[in-house]
Every structure is written in structure tokens, then in C-alpha cells.
Amino acid sequence: MSNQRVASRYAKSIMELSLEKGRLEEVHTDFLRLTALAESNHELKLVLRNPIVNSDKKLNVLKALFAKGSDPLTMTFFEIISQKNREEILLDVAKEFENQYNLHMSIQVAEVTTTFPLDDTLRKEFAQVVKEVSGKKTVQLVEKINPDLIGGYILKVNDRQIDESLSSKLRQLKTQFITNHYESKI
Questions:
Q1: What value, to the nearest 5°, has the Cα angle with vertex 151 and ends 147 and 156?
Q2: CA-CA distance, 78 to 37, in Å (whole number)?
Q3: Of 66, 70, 80, 90, which has the maximum CB count within 10 A?
Q4: Is 20 helix (H, G, I), strand (E, B) or coil?
Q5: Tens digit of each residue's pLDDT (9 = 90 or more) over 40-93
Q6: C-alpha–C-alpha distance, residues 172 and 175, integer Å
Q7: For residue 3, is it left (φ>0), alpha (ψ between -120 and 50) or beta?
């Protein structure tokens, strides 16, 4: 079975258990913290995915990182993952948990790329467009800045992309000029 499917099943089970116990927000916070730690500390990723490091050491690392302020349900989950020698998928489980949490809470994550930082007015307009496209109640915008766009924006919502950037318009014009419709092909 692929790591993605296994991670999805683990995420679903911890999600259901945290909902049942009324600890969803606490577990969600712990998984966000795990993801942030892995993003800021490349060695953590390497340790969790390294087959040479035994499960007890990996669990001790997790216990040290989450000793204060973490939910006991999360720690129990880490122990179960460790007993099954599945620490290498823990970051995938965290990512999949975030996806399932967003689905449960009706949150739509969208990525907007512009050439400049967004102000509150533009942020609200993009959020409104995303709400219309997705039908979700809440929108979480991931803002990126790319000066190569020249102007305009690129908005990604799930598998849909709205590309209104000047660089893409210039590429389209370039391809239109390359094919000359008025030149005889004799």
C-alpha cells in the first residue's frame, strides 16, 4: 500500500478519535506544530525518515519536542505510530490530517500569487472569489509574491487555476505570432 493511502487512513482514524473525544482543536494544533517544526528543521525530517535510527529514538525525539503543551491523545498517537515502525509517514499523516480538518471545518485553502503584497481590500476580494468557486464558508489564502508575473495574479483553488498574469498573456501572444495564419504554405 502506498504511503499516501496509509497516511490518509491514519489521519482519518486520529481525526475521528479526536472528534469523538472532543479534542479536535488541540490535536490539530499539535499537527500544525509538527509540520512547522519539520519545515524549519530539516534534520527532524531526516530523522523521521531514516530507517537506521530505531523507533525508540524517534519516539524520544517526538516526546522531547512535544513534552510541554501537547495533547495526550497526540502523544498516544505518536506512540502507536512508533510501535508500528511508521514514523516515516508521520509528516504525511500531518498533511493529510490538515486536509481532512479543512474539509470537516469547511475551510478552503487557496493560493494567490501576485507581484506585490496584498492589502486588506484585495485579500477580501480574492476570498470572495474563492468562496464563490469552492462553495466553502471560510477561506484561507496562501499569499506568494513573484515579480516574474510582471502584473496581474494567479489564483489556485484545488485543481482549478485562474491565470490573469501579464507574463501568461505575453506567452499567449508569442505563440499566436509564431503561427502566421496569413503566410501561404506552398
A1: 85
A2: 15
A3: 90
A4: helix
A5: 999 999 999 999 999 999 999 999 999 888 999 999 999 999 999 999 999 999
A6: 5
A7: alpha
3-state helix/strand/coil string of 58-108:
HHHHHHHHCCCCCCHHHHHHHHHHHHCCCHHHHHHHHHHHHHHHHHHCCEE
Crossing angle of helices 72-83 and 55-65, in 10° steps, is: 170
Q: Which three cell numbers stand for residue 39?
A: 519545515
Residue 1 pLDDT > 70: no
Three-state secondary structure call for residue 160: strand
Q: Which of 133, 94, 91 is nearest to 111 (CA)?
A: 133
Residue 65 makes CB contacts below 8 A (sequence gap 6+) with 34, 37, 44
Say how far apart CA 3 and CA 178 lie, in whole Å: 45
Rounded to the nearest 10 degrees, the angle between the axes of helix 90-104 and helix 42-49 is 110
Phi/psi-derived region of residue 85, left when phi > 0, alpha when psi is between -120 and 50, beta in every other case: left
Q: Give the bridge partners for 107, in sequence order.
A: 138
Q: 12: exposed, middle or buried (C-beta count within 10 Å: 0-12, 13-18, 19+)?
A: middle
Could you tell me the pTM of the whole model?
0.82
pLDDT band of residue 176 (cuts 50, 70, 90) is confident
Q: How far apart are alpha carbons 110 and 95 in whole angstroms?
A: 15
Mean pLDDT of 152-176: 90
